Amino acid sequence: QRLVDSGPDGEDQAVEAALRPKDLDEFVGQEKVREQLDLVLRAARARGATADHVLLSGAPGLGKTTLSMIIAAEMNAPIRITSGPAIQHAGDLAAILSSLQEGEVLFLDEIHRMSRPAEEMLYMAMEDFRVDVIVGKGPGATAIPLELPPFTLVGATTRAGLLPPPLRDRFGFTGHMEFYEPAELERVLHRSARLLDVEIDTDGAAEIAGRSRGTPRIANRLLRRVRDYAQVKADGIIDRDIAAAALKVYEVDARGLDRLDRAVLGALLKLFGGGPVGLSTLAVAVGEERETVEEVAEPFLVREGLLARTPRGRVATPAAWTHLGLVPPQQGNG
Ligand code: ADP
């Protein structure tokens, strides 16, 4: 597992639970989503009704699970958490839906990865609070309608565009989660440090925030590694120097690139003069699988404006040369 991976890992789960904001006021950033969601929830509460279904789109680690828990808390409702890949058969979904309590929030992570039959069952459940349970097989199969209590579905997906339109249309509200600004991540870090009982100063938080790839989950993870370092090598207090020294040990650089990112970028610059070079060639040069380079390293490099994917291959941008402290070769008259 990479330190800068935005997905959850085993060790994280307990700490993450402890660090999750409990209500909308504690939730840092995402002003637009927060304001809109606040209205949706207040209105539902005023009507004494179950909140509309909510779709949250955005990269891993930006707070979708946290928001779904906040929705349940604000509606004073229980929450059930599951994910698209966990629902392979329509029957799996029917079992979950039929056991929901009135007003319960059902959080469905990676909703775009649900199986097709389950998805179709979900349409009806979302709209009419009803499912047809198929009993038996073949020509003798019968559909038994089953009434469901009203519930709120909170679906999460990396991109709303991945959802089939009929599913997308059944959500009353869609919130798009953005990557966080450094100042917002600093607030996340100060809050987490308080909860973890770690002392961190303004510069220390800024140093970690700048390396966190716009993602609270990564910020919290880096904070814990820096805390270890501060405890072992210093007096436990995190300032700029301690944060920088700790993250140097973990090979996370000033912009949040790790060893793999820098290997890909370094090969592109040093071996291929900045490209264009094909993905497979680049992968062989860094000794990684094609998929690893394409799916793990590249998205962040592209987002950071360090690498571009062109029809002729991968190309480094001028910022890439600067970042690795290299000088681009002379062009034009060579
Ligand atoms: P996702 O479901 O989008 O992958 P999570 O909701 O699990 O992300 O959030 C990952 C971690 O980041 C959690 O520990 C959570 O406390 C923290 N986090 C996410 N968003 C925020 C936020 N806006 N403010 C404070 N902490 C946050």
Automatic annotation (TrEMBL):
Pfam families: AAA_lid_4 (PF17864), RuvB_N (PF05496), WHD_RuvB (PF05491). Residues 181-251 are annotated as: Small ATPAse domain (RuvB-S). InterPro entries: AAA+_ATPase (IPR003593), AAA_lid_4 (IPR041445), DNA_helicase_Holl-junc_RuvB (IPR004605), P-loop_NTPase (IPR027417), RuvB-like_N (IPR008824), RuvB_wg_C (IPR008823), WH-like_DNA-bd_sf (IPR036388), WH_DNA-bd_sf (IPR036390). Signal peptide: none annotated. SMART domains: AAA. Mg(2+) binds at T65. Its EC number is 3.6.4.-. Its main location: cytoplasm. Keywords: ATP-binding, Cytoplasm, DNA damage, DNA recombination, DNA repair, DNA-binding, Helicase, Hydrolase, Nucleotide-binding. Residues 254-334 are annotated as: Head domain (RuvB-H). It catalyses: ATP + H2O = ADP + phosphate + H(+). DNA binds at R290, R309, R314. Residues 50-183 form the AAA+ ATPase domain. It comes from the Bacteria. ATP binds at L19, R20, G61, K64, T65, T66, E127, D128, F129, R170, Y180, R217. GO terms for molecular function: DNA helicase activity; hydrolase activity. It is found in: Cytoplasm. PANTHER family: HOLLIDAY JUNCTION BRANCH MIGRATION COMPLEX SUBUNIT RUVB (PTHR42848:SF1), PTHR42848. Has 3 domains, the large (RuvB-L) and small ATPase (RuvB-S) domains and the C-terminal head (RuvB-H) domain. The head domain binds DNA, while the ATPase domains jointly bind ATP, ADP or are empty depending on the state of the subunit in the translocation cycle. During a single DNA translocation step the structure of each domain remains the same, but their relative positions change. The RuvA-RuvB-RuvC complex processes Holliday junction (HJ) DNA during genetic recombination and DNA repair, while the RuvA-RuvB complex plays an important role in the rescue of blocked DNA replication forks via replication fork reversal (RFR). RuvA specifically binds to HJ cruciform DNA, conferring on it an open structure. The RuvB hexamer acts as an ATP-dependent pump, pulling dsDNA into and through the RuvAB complex. RuvB forms 2 homohexamers on either side of HJ DNA bound by 1 or 2 RuvA tetramers; 4 subunits per hexamer contact DNA at a time. Homohexamer. Forms an RuvA(8)-RuvB(12)-Holliday junction (HJ) complex. HJ DNA is sandwiched between 2 RuvA tetramers; dsDNA enters through RuvA and exits via RuvB. An RuvB hexamer assembles on each DNA strand where it exits the tetramer. Each RuvB hexamer is contacted by two RuvA subunits (via domain III) on 2 adjacent RuvB subunits; this complex drives branch migration. In the full resolvosome a probable DNA-RuvA(4)-RuvB(12)-RuvC(2) complex forms which resolves the HJ. This is Holliday junction branch migration complex subunit RuvB.
